[in-house]
User: Which sequence fits this backbone?
């Protein structure tokens, strides 16, 4: 079938399917003597039509020579990618797969791809479920923290660590330093269900499901990249919306990701807020009650943020 032979859609194929985008998180990943478990699991899922794999030829997965569809488009999203993903998602739906997995090389930007996907994937027939980072065991991982693109680690929602002879304990310090809030998987998934399970990292009600973090936990991680605070006051909606717009303009580059749930005076539902850099979204979570969430809660991933100042600015929005 050529790239232009898009399958005819049936009524059951119209529903969008989740898309997981996997990034190589280092430029020096090398092929090991044995194929990593995660790669074998992805290949098997593709063969079994459980997932559909679309890989850039420069990605670590494609270089292993495993089964997938190869996409030779640019490293940045554009109109050609809209056409490619629209076709591939239609093909994936015709095979009744549960997930599309897009594998991209290190030179691709998770921030750019994440924001673009949230805006454009719906028009292609999919929705962004998560961004996953691949990290092979490396000796000089500390150097990666000081690379100009080190903030890309804060964009990923899940990290897959792997490497011949490595153990989970070998990566503990790395994970705390790179992104303490990402889901962490080592070597491979427990079973196929875990691989195909949606993370729903960008669902609008995500803040409502997050577990409150304590300052002791943040200090123990030693990351200094997570701001968490909680307050109990009901807030003025207009003031809060104005504050978020101010933060979007002032801290858009520093705030890599933000999740918040805010108690608004005079309403029975909390305000759910999510952001990636300058891309913000908010809605009233009508199927939740403010009684279920007695606190305003904020989780902010970024670098160089003043947690005390941010909390003080928010508390000035009290009703």
Assistant:
């Amino acid at each position: 079938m050529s790239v232009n032979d898009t399958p005819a859609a049936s009524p059951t194929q119209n529903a969008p399917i989740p898309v997981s985008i996997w990034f190589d998180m280092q430029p020096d990943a090398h092929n090991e003597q044995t194929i990593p478990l995660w790669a074998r699991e992805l290949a098997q899922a593709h063969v079994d039509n459980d997932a559909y794999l679309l890989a850039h030829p420069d990605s670590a997965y494609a270089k292993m020579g495993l089964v997938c569809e190869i996409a030779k488009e640019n490293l940045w999203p554009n109109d050609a990618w809209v056409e490619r993903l629209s076709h591939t998602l239609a093909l994936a739906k015709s095979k009744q797969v549960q997930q599309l997995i897009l594998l991209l090389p290190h030179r691709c930007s998770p921030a750019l791809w994440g924001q673009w996907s949230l805006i454009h994937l719906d028009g292609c027939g999919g929705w962004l479920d998560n961004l996953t980072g691949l990290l092979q065991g490396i000796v000089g991982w500390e150097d990666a923290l000081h690379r100009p693109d080190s903030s890309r680690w804060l964009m990923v929602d899940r990290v897959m660590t792997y490497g011949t002879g490595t153990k989970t304990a070998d990566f503990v310090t790395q994970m705390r330093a790179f992104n303490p809030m990402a889901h962490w998987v080592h070597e491979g998934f427990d079973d196929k269900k875990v691989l195909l399970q949606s993370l729903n990292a960008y669902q609008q009600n995500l803040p409502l499901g997050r577990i409150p973090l304590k300052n002791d936990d943040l200090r123990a991680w030693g990351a200094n990249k997570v701001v968490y605070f909680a307050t109990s006051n009901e807030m003025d909606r207009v003031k809060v919306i104005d504050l978020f717009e101010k933060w979007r303009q002032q801290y858009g580059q520093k705030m890599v990701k933000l999740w918040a749930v805010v108690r608004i005076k005079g309403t029975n539902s909390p305000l759910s807020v999510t952001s990636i850099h300058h891309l913000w979204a908010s809605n009233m979570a009508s199927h939740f009650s403010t009684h279920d969430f007695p606190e305003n809660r904020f989780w902010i991933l970024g670098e160089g943020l003043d947690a005390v100042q941010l909390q003080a600015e928010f508390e000035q929005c009290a009703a």
